[in-house]
């Protein structure tokens, strides 16, 4: 059985810069890269895995986009402006969690 190739973190980071409209040599690139690292760790923690796989890396990219877009709203859970109410999801959004669910590692529990 052939060994799977390692996930392309640099390639996904380049795609992340493009999706967010951030130049790779700008000050924002360092922020995006840091958020991407945080998103990767959050996805690994959620799945219970120590090694990164391509599907988890893609979901981490999606999570980094959410994190980047919520920068100015950090800490807010809900905002009401006139008749408009905005509610923010905390942690990993449900759509990303559902995509990560198949990659979660089960934990063995003792019998009672």
TrEMBL record:
It comes from Liquorilactobacillus ghanensis DSM 18630. Pfam families: Phage_connect_1. This is Uncharacterized protein.
């Amino acid at each position: 059985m052939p060994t799977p190739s390692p996930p392309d973190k640099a390639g996904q980071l380049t795609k992340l810069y493009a999706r967010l409209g951030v130049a790779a040599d700008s000050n924002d690139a360092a922020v995006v890269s840091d958020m991407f690292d945080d998103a990767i760790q959050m996805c690994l923690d959620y799945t219970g895995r120590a090694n990164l796989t391509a599907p988890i890396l893609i979901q981490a990219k999606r999570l980094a986009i959410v994190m980047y877009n919520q920068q100015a709203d950090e800490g807010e859970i809900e905002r009401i402006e006139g008749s408009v109410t905005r509610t923010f999801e905390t942690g990993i959004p449900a759509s990303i969690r559902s995509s990560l669910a198949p990659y979660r590692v089960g934990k063995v529990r003792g019998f009672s």
